[in-house]
Design goal:
single chain, about 325 residues, alpha/beta, 8-stranded mixed β-sheet, 8 strands, elongated, binds guanosine-5'-triphosphate, binds magnesium ion
Length: about 325
Amino acid sequence: MGLIAFLKEKFAKKDKKVDKYQEGLSKSRKNFSSKLNNLSERYKTVNQDYFDELEQILIESDAGISFTLDVIEEVLNQSKKEHITDPKQINEILVDKMFVGYAEKGDIQNDVVFRKDGPTVLLVVGVNGVGKTTTIAKLAHRYLNQGKKVLLVAADTFRAGAVEQLTTWAERLKINIVTGKPESDPASVAYDGVKKAKEDNIDLVIVDTAGRLQTKNNLMLELGKIKRVMSKEIPDAPHETFLIIDATTGQNGVVQAKAFKEVTDLTGIVITKMDGTSKGGIILAIRDELGVPVRFIGLGEKMDDLEEFDLDKYLYGLCVENN
Ligand SMILES: Nc1nc2c(ncn2[C@@H]2O[C@H](COP(=O)(O)OP(=O)(O)OP(=O)(O)O)[C@@H](O)[C@H]2O)c(=O)[nH]1
Ligand SMILES: [Mg+2]
């Protein structure tokens, strides 16, 4: 059984979670899956033009040149080997290869990996406006629901309003927050945060950072300093570093991801605003370039609009029309 048939069977009985995915991915699906279907209807058998168009569809979905070329080559090879010329079958092979293309690039992991003793520290990084603070609130909400003690740390001391924004979320979530004075050193706030987390027996400390665009060198220095001071209180902190990428920024998101990966050890990616893009292939491009697992995706502005990234649901949402 091909992957499309498998996914249809798996998700035929709609549960709420799948629906949320499907709803959030509807713009991307319209763009990708309808083009795919349209293509297979225009051709009786596949030829080079067919593969060129297929390639174009993937690139237009922001799956990235390198991922696209690899996947198309795989499809081409399999179709030759098995003498497959039916466009519908080719499209099925394509989805199989997209699955493998993501899966083989590295680990698959969603939830924060909690330490057995002492607080787990999660550092959240990303450029301006991508959704860091909102994602932090969503993650706090998720882990509070799982019975964890969560502390927020507003190490974004750069932008006026940033501290208030996180404080408002902390109030809504009814949890504590550690803040510093405006323009104070982000590292000193981060230090105060992990210190308090130890004192209060916190399970998860989430550290918000400034999204200002800076040179690679400055970014490296700032993140390096934050890490250094935190690890004075909690060895190996941060245990997780999530990079937040805005799906609507397209290939620019890939450029950001590469830049951050060069200056810091990322353990996960969160792709936000998936609900606002028709180019959901961005997840494939980022995975291809970084190998880091996409841990969660943002599907809206509300506290519970965060879902674990699930490759099956994602491909079903992207590739299967009328689901
Ligand atoms: N539709 C949608 N909007 C989102 C999502 N995540 C965040 N947003 C919105 O994006 C905007 C920016 O979010 P913030 O959380 O303030 O982004 P930030 O990265 O903290 O921004 P800076 O602190 O200025 O760098 C807000 O209006 C959020 O509501 C999402 O998954 N979907
Ligand atoms: Mg922010």
